[in-house]
Amino acid sequence: MQITVPKILQVEQFDPAQLDDPVAARTRWKMIGKGGFNLRHYHFKDVGTNRMELKPGMLALAFEVVFTWVGALIMIVGDYDFRSLIAIACGFLMGFLFVAAERIYYILWPSVFDKTSGWHYEGRKALHAVATMRDEERAGAVQLSSIHALQMLENRHNWCRQYELNLVLQDGRRVSIGWSRQKDHACKAADKLADFLEVPVWSNISDTVRSMRIAGRAVGSLKRRMGLRKNLKCSNGFEGK
User: What is the pLDDT of residues 186-215, one digit of tens each?
Assistant: First the structure.
């Protein structure tokens, strides 16, 4: 059985009631404003058929390396004169390499959506690691079965616009995934993740509301729309009510 619904609903002004979903009615529609990846520099990449990772592109890697080197040079030149530069360079290099390695390791720390383990988490854990953790250890992890929809938000401040992508859980709580100042990057990321998770995309973007989107054919997706899925417990680390 396949449900056909419009991918984009044209509206003049956004109203959560138009989504005809009780979860949307109790979900906050203001930006979380903290956490998440820059969706201009980080992209969703398929890692097999059951796993998707949000990983940095080459531009993000280059920025981190250049930023770290420039910062290091400013520290050296600012504190010492030219004659002392060579004397301290060797000693400083070892410490700098540790700092650079830490920064690169951090940006290579992926945000994972794994259907095999049934979890969304950050880091390179084994497939079974998150599922076997105690609740207090599972900070920031989300069961994929508890994800009800994706939320796309637009915030305008004078001439500047920012777009935010969040997960919406069955109880209305949200988890920040990423943000961008360019709508195309945010929408592309939302569409790709929605296809993988098979959930709708809700949006308050002024020109379109991507509210009625269902990706593919899946029993889990149909149950989500019919409200038949049980409310699974999620871990801590989410937006509070």
Answer: 999 999 999 999 999 999 886 544 443 433
The whole-chain average pLDDT of the chain stands at 70
- Of 1, 3, 60, the closest CA to residue 199 belongs to 3
Angle in degrees, 0-180, between the axes of helices 82-107 and 58-79, rounded to the nearest 10: 150
DSSP three-state, residue 93 = helix
The letter for the amino acid at 101 is A
This prediction has a pTM of 0.65
Q: How many helices (H) and strands (E) does the chain have?
A: 5, 10
Which residues pair with residue 61 across a beta bridge? none
Residue in the block written with tokens 């981190």: 64
Q: Residue 183 burial (CB < 10 Å; 0-12/13-18/19+)?
A: middle
C-beta of residue 164 within 8 angstroms of C-beta of residue 181: no
DSSP label of 9 = B
**Domain map of the chain by residue range?**
16-44+125-226
pLDDT at 51 over 90: yes
- The first and second tokens of residue 130, run together, are 């998150």
- What's the start-to-end Cα distance of the chain, in Å? 36
Quote the DSSP letter at residue 144: G
Q: HSE-up of 62 (CA within 13 Å, CB side)?
A: 4
Helix (H) or strand (E) holding 201: strand 201-203
Calculate the CA dihedral of residues 95, 109, 164, 170 and round it to 10 degrees.
-140
**Mean pLDDT, rounded, for 72-79:** 53
Taken in order 136, 137, 138, 139, the sign of the CA dihedral is positive
For residues 177 and 54, the answer to whether their CB atoms sit within 8 Å is: yes
